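#lab-general

N.A. 3:47 PM
ok so I finally got the sequence cleaned up, no stray characters, all 124 residues accounted for. can someone with queue access submit it? mine expired

B.Y. 3:52 PM
send it over

N.A. 3:53 PM
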Amino acid sequence: MASDYLPVGILILLATALAFLIVLISILFGPKRHAQKTKRVQPYESGMQAIGPGQRRLPVRFYLVAVLFILFDIEIIFFYPWAVALRALGPGGFLAMLSFMTILVVGFVWVWKKGALEWESMDK
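B.Y. 4:20 PM
back already:
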């Protein structure tokens, strides 16, 4: 029975080794702290002199909307296999999906009431 888990153990070991290898390579070949002020690391765009910093700070609300979109989008993906297998699932499958949809709608209404989907307030 333990031999059934051998491929999983090897996969975990390889993934851990690869993670350490990637970090080691980035430490060895990545930019050093003292190179931050050189022209080499400045943003280059069409041969023009850069105006201002190369990176802008974005409000957290943009990230909030993106995360909420991904969250609700992934939950909607669960509707397709349920709709395909609705007859095979019977009433139990219907009730389970109804409870899932209820939780989804309650979460969506809560996010809507909190104002997380309001774009007008981001201009302030």
